[in-house]
Amino acid sequence: MKVLKFGGTSVGSAERIKHVADLVCRSKGDIVVLSAMSGTTNTLVEISEYLYKGNVPGAQETLNALSAKYAGVVSELLSGEEARLAASEAVERSLSTIRYYFDKEFGEDAEKEILAQGELISTALMHALLTERGVRAVMLPALDYMRTGEGGEPDMAYIASGLRRLLELSPGADVYITQGYICRNNSGKTDNLRRGGSDYTASIAGAVIDAEEIQIWTDIDGMHNNDPRYVENTRPVSELHFEEAAELAYFGAKILHPACVLPAKLHNIPVRLLNTMEPEAPGTLIYNTRPDGTIKAVAAKDGITAIKIKSGRMLLAYGFLHKVFETFENHRTSIDMIATSEVGVTLSIDDDSRLAAIVDDLKRFGTVTVDRDMVIICIVGDLEWHNTGFEGRVLAALGDIPVRMISYGGSNYNISVLVRAEDKIEALRRLSKNLFE
Ligand code: ADP
Ligand code: ASP
Ligand code: MG
């Protein structure tokens, strides 16, 4: 059994949904995870923003446009009365769930309920289409098995038993359909796995059923060696180690949700990145590859803040770093990069919601300075320390771009450098030119 996930663009129109329906019938009994149609989750976020601000007419107008869009999709997608009725009813159920909150006190729970509707609709549309085509398609409602535990992490034991039970209830289907992204939290309320989370759904589902392979179908032919949104002439990487893929996803390669690699890696399930528009292209295979002595790819993570703590007391003292780290832990803020010297330490964070309080606390230990609007550029590949020359090539490529921080040796797979946001695109381009051309 395989798990196939199709992202928003892959199901972005009636025509694309039909194309995905062709692809999922190529082998029998797979689980298909779908995102919302592209644009829908953003529209749902917009509706929530209107409701937070108490602007009901704004929400109404946005919902009307969404309603018109789906009426068009239903009529283009399906031809039979029965299928159209089933799909229209599902769409209307979701729209009225959203409408329900127009005259209620609005908060996070309501927002999450609204955000869940995109995936509920896209899967209902796919189900109606496959059923109309005579395919035995079975829905596995994500809200019935996908659940996070107390710390907000997926409750793998619950998910495993829930998903297996649902599969046992409907053996022998041609295809199983489930919603990406959405889940329940440990109080049983509707929640989600954060933006882009359908990839995570696919790898969690793949892990708990011990799938033969997890396929992430998207709008590009695999993981490219640099960010195609900013750099020209990028090329797909044919193979990546789980660790390399995890670093790239975490450090900004949007093609994969940052958490998606871990469940697959733990269960040693290969992940294949494939292009819906070009199904025969080889894409990228992520598994336990052997190190091959090359640099594979570069990615960038935006929105980084660097915090420097300088202290004479650090000189020859122990316990200083412990106090610094504890401060971040107390504020539940995770650290991305670290650089130390005998008189100071600089750390980088991506979540600056607690920055003022963190800086305030750190002032007890030394002089604190903050650099905002920074970007981590992450260079990934076989960077085991005996492989010489890569550090030099990376720094030479950056040339006169000011580097705030460098991290190397933390893993065998990465060198990270911190630069100003305004230098990001130039840094990415220079790295491509020097490392891959
Ligand atoms: P989906 O909606 O299918 O989940 P996403 O938009 O989340 O798709 O991810 C695919 C996009 O990721 C590509 O269109 C591309 O612009 C972007 N991207 C960023 N970095 C990379 C990379 N290194 N390789 C491939 N795609 C990347
Ligand atoms: N629909 C959600 C989003 O746009 C989840 C996903 O597409 O992976 O973020
Ligand atoms: Mg995505």
What is the C-alpha radius of gyration, as a whole number of Å?
24 Å
Query: What's the number of helices?
Result: 14
Look at the helices and sheets and give the structural class.
Answer: alpha/beta
Bound ligands: adenosine-5'-diphosphate, aspartic acid, magnesium ion
End-to-end distance: 39 Å
- Specify the biggest β-sheet: 8 strands, mixed
Residue-averaged pLDDT: 96
Question: How are strands sequenced across the largest beta sheet?
Answer: 3-4-2-1-7-9-10-8
As a percent range, the share of helical residues equals 25-40%
- How many beta-strand segments? 16
> Based on CA inertia axes, which overall geometry fits?
globular
Order of helices and strands: EHEHHHHHEHEEEHEEHHEEEHEEHEHEEH
Measured by DSSP, the beta-strand proportion falls in: 15-25%
Low-confidence runs: none
Describe this structure in words.
There is one protein chain. With 437 residues, this protein is α/β, with parallel strands linked by helices. The chain is built from 14 helices and 16 strands. The chain has an 8-stranded mixed beta sheet, sandwiched between helices. The chain has a 6-stranded antiparallel beta sheet with strand order 12-13-11-14-16-15. Strand 9 (271-275) and strand 10 (284-287) form a beta hairpin. The protein is globular and about 75 Å long.
Short description:
The protein has helices spanning 14-24, 40-52, 56-77, 81-100, 108-115, 117-132, 156-169, 198-208, 242-250, 261-266, 320-330, 355-362, 390-398, 424-436, and strands at 2-6, 30-34, 137-140, 175-179, 182-184, 190-192, 213-218, 239-241, 271-275, 284-287, 295-310, 335-340, 344-349, 367-381, 403-408, 414-420. It is α/β, with parallel strands linked by helices and 437 residues long. It binds adenosine-5'-diphosphate, aspartic acid and magnesium ion (MG).
